[in-house]
Amino acid sequence: MERFQLYINGEFVDGAGWFDSLDPASGRVWAQMPEARETEVNRAVDAAHAAFSAPAWAGLTATARGKLLYRLADLVQEAAPRLAALETRDTGKVIRETSAQIAYVAEYYRYYAGLADKIEGAHLPIDKPDMEVWTRREPVGVVAAIVPWNSQLFLSAVKLGPALAAGCTVVLKASEDGPAPLLELGRLVDKAGFPAGVVNIISGFGAQCGAVLTRHRKVAHIAFTGGPETAAHVVRGAAENLATTSLELGGKSPFIVFDDADLDSAANAQISGIFAATGQSCVAGSRLLVQQGVKDRFLAILRDKAAAIRIAAPDDMTTEVGPLCTARQRDGIIAAIRASIDAGAKVITGGQPLAGDGFYFPPTIMDCTDAPDADCLRKELFGPVLSVVAFETEEQALQLANDTQYGLAAGVFTKDLTRAHRMIRQLRAGIVWVNTYRAVSPIAPFGGVGLSGQGREGGLAAALDYTTVKTVWLRTSDDPIPDPFIMR
Ligand code: NDP
Q1: Residue whose CA lies nearest to ligand 1 atom number 22
Q2: Which atom of ligand 1 is nearest to 204's Cα?
Q3: Atom in ligand 1 nearest the alpha carbon of residue 177
Q4: Which residue pairs, CB below 8 angstroms and at least 24 apart, start in 301-305?
Q5: Of 252, 255, 311, 416, which is least packed with CB atoms within 10 Å of its CB?
Q6: CATH assignment of the domain containing 201
Q7: Nearest CA to 401 among 297, 279, 290, 292?
Q8: What is the pLDDT of residues 87-137, one digit of tens each?
Q9: Same domain, yes or no, for 278 and 261?
């Protein structure tokens, strides 16, 4: 059985013990993962803290940091088949998506490699003639990066890339579910030539590992992706040392189809928005709001497309929907569907787990038009379940769309440009996709509002989150300092 190791201070080491990792396609143990507890967390943070000011890292120019990131990008690209296979094996995410996503992960590292020597301070036209004043953008310090099990390589690239470009050092915690691809990433970081301690990668459980990390007094910033409940724990931990946080949380994103939309195109986008990655995507367009006049036609297209989806083993390139990552996920979805039926929702398709081994659940569509408080419509299920509500007017669509505490993404399908602009302005979400869905790029900021989090990943602004501003005052006069009792 394969065994993985932690990567701490440039060495591959065992943890306090081992825990089993299940193959979601069979439900059986396939590998053992190292468990980091307090001792290992402390070693990792101490290593990152020492590396932060050691000349091997702090003495590098920004351009040299960028070159290390370029090297890491190349290594990720070369190792893409193994990384994709590991992610698929350990999380059940279909190989079709992991392969494509990992190739694109390399582009995120390249984007931040190029950005490293473009993080600039500013010269200020100060209102005092005998002063030169400028700002420096300096790295914040040790970053705790915490990711969930879905898209771990992607979600760690959007943290490691900007943090390293800015000059920070990092302790990256993988999820207890499916940590294999991140532990493997340690080998690539090592090969890329980052000095020991600059990047440390650990796996372990939330309470014994994640909580210790977030409360650590040497951690300056926490970049967290996960659910809102865990985020509240993270913020409480951060408060002990006033560490800053960026939070990328879940969503219950509306996907709005107006009666003038190109229905075939919208249906493909909706399928991608809810059934790709087996629905385990933070931006899943899990609430379909469809205008009454096209509801039946649109649902018929969706039903046909859902029925044609190939559900099979995740390591088969032709598979479109694979298993959920954990039995816990599947059981939560089953319970939410039962409660929603009791609350008046109707199953249009799917709704029952598939028989046999593994954590499979079929693409499911629920009509919640008469069940406004159904769990399916309110809770993030993180699975292939689409909840549908019909609307009559634009105002009603907007009211339904914003009737959630989440605010990550929204999709709008219409050919009416002026309506699209009105919707863009009024939708409460960090991302609005118009006539498309689930598109990302390293150049574009990504994140949400409300229970979906705060702070952005991707783009220039994300790199600035890992910096702090130092203001420098330099007096250019040789005259004695005037009246010392007056603030200048
Ligand atoms: P969780 O919030 O349960 O876990 C996220 C990470 O936090 C895991 O590494 C977990 O470790 C760790 N953790 C758990 N408890 C603590 C704690 N007390 N202190 C510090 N860390 C802790 O999320 P899931 O794994 O269930 O992932 C699904 C969630 O992630 C969904 O809500 C989804 O929407 C969100 N997500 C958001 C994205 C975004 O960019 N907005 C992208 C992808 C997912 P462990 O696994 O050991 O419990």
Answers
A1: 206
A2: 47
A3: 46
A4: 301/263, 301/264, 301/267, 302/267, 302/270, 302/271, 302/365, 302/386, 303/348, 303/349, 303/365, 305/267, 305/268, 305/271
A5: 416
A6: 3.40.605.10
A7: 290
A8: 999 999 999 999 999 999 999 999 999 999 999 999 999 999 999 999 999
A9: yes
Structure tokens at 440: 């990302």
pLDDT of residue 488: 87
Which of 87, 230, 452 for a ligand 1 pocket mutation test, highest count of atoms within 8 Å of Cβ? 230
CATH of residue 379: 3.40.309.10
Q: Do 92 and 198 belong to one domain?
A: yes
pTM (predicted TM-score): 0.96
User: Could you give the CA distance from residue 28 to residue 485 in angstroms, rounded to a whole number?
Assistant: 74
Question: Which atom of ligand 1 is nearest to 149's Cα?
Answer: 25
Ligand 1 probe mutation, 40, 201, 225, 326, most atoms within 8 A of CB: 225
How distant, in Å, are the alpha carbons of 385, 391, 410 from that of 107?
31, 40, 25
Clarify whether residues 258 and 406 are in a common domain.
yes
Q: Is residue 474 part of a domain?
A: no
Residue 296 lies in a domain: yes
By CB neighbour count within 10 A (0-12 exposed, 13-18 middle, 19+ buried), where does 98 fall?
buried
Q: Tell me, yes or no, whether 244 and 356 share the same domain.
A: no
Both 224 and 302 in a single domain?
no
Which range marks the domain in which residue 100 is found?
A: 2-249+448-456
* Pair (215, 295) in one structural domain: no
